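Before a colleague's protein record goes any further, I have to sign it off. Thanks in advance; the entry in question is below:
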Amino acid sequence: MFLCNKTQNFPKMNQNIFLKHLSFLCVIGICFIFTTNALSQETSQVDAEPSLAQRVFEKYQSLLLRDDIQELLPTILEEIKKPENQKLLAPATINLVVDRPDLLKTFVPDIDDEFITLLKEDQEIQTFLRDIDVQALLQNPEAIDELAALIEMYELPLVERIFERYQVFFQREDIIQILPGVLAVFKNPENQALLQPNTLTLVAENPDHLKEVLPQISDEFITLLKEDTEVKVLINDPDVQALLQDPAAIDELAVLLNIKPPVIVRIVPASVESPQVGEQLVITVDIADGEGVSGYEGKVQFDPTALRFVSLAHGSYLSGQVLPIATEVEENQITFAQIAIGTPASTADGTLVTITFEVLNAKASTLTLSDVIIGGFGGVTFPVIIENAEILEPPPTRPWDVNKDGRVNILDLTFVASYFGKEDAPPAADVNRDGKVNILDLTIVASHFGE
């Protein structure tokens, strides 16, 4: 009877059990969906974080690039990747091997004996193998391959490494346009002296600081530094920072990228003390790295309250048959141009024009280049970097030092005396600037005798 009752109740009991199992599976399913969504969100948040191989390489780069490790590492990594060895690489096993290196030969018979010796004696390797990230990597063949690729990349010379790492970035249209000018500014010897080791680190945090250090850098590059993630990654890269402080490496990268250096057009001298009123100031506009140039034009702005334009003469940079183009002079601006017919300039460096001014007021002012165009045959234009000039206010004058040799002595007195009472006396002999050379001028010089 008991068996009969049990048999009769069996379908009902199975139904109850089935419902319980179904409910349990529903709960599991809901939990699974929730967990999957949570993990998905978490994964999306850390997509930008370094991979396991990148973390290990960053942490142990100096160890992994050691010459003795480089000799052994490729073979060791290949041994570790073998499926039969992967089964043994639990964290507990790795820690045991670090404590007792000879056991590694038991687990991995083909392991190099030199590595066993290093493991016994080298504290760096022991620390490396106890790291939980390293232990996780050694159990992941894909991560091992990624680490090997990173090491191989860093075995390349600095410039090739940067070229390989940022090859796609360097092909961006906006980068192609500004990169020649940016590299030229960094390469400038005067700017190199300003690039202290921590300067580029500060620039990454505050791009405007770069404009303060290197005023010639393009505003477009500063904007990209502020807004473009790829550019921020680039400037934060220690390899790139090392390259930007090495002119030879900059040139090598330019060759790999097929970048011709920009033409530099500068006012010379870049800084000059203003001559005295009535005297002349002569400057040149020079060109550098201008291979294949067949024509140029530009403007020089000046302060008309300080200077008066006197003349402009073209230099010999363009030779042979040249087309004369009239110089235009406005109140504060000089426009110049010249073009060669038949042959381009035979040299990369030279003087475009020489400009002479008369000093109206011996004060501080600037000379500024603008609208500079450097061209080649066929309408080709070259990227240009311009360098302006400043005129400094002269130190207080000592008119009694008539010959300007820094001393007031008998030579100054005899100079003034030689023009005593003469109407054609030079301005220097008229010490008090009253339009006459007389006893008053001699008295002033004599009162400062010996200074």
Residues 318 and 345 are 5 Å apart (CA to CA). The first helix runs from residue 2 to 45. Confidence is low (pLDDT under 50) at residues 1-47.
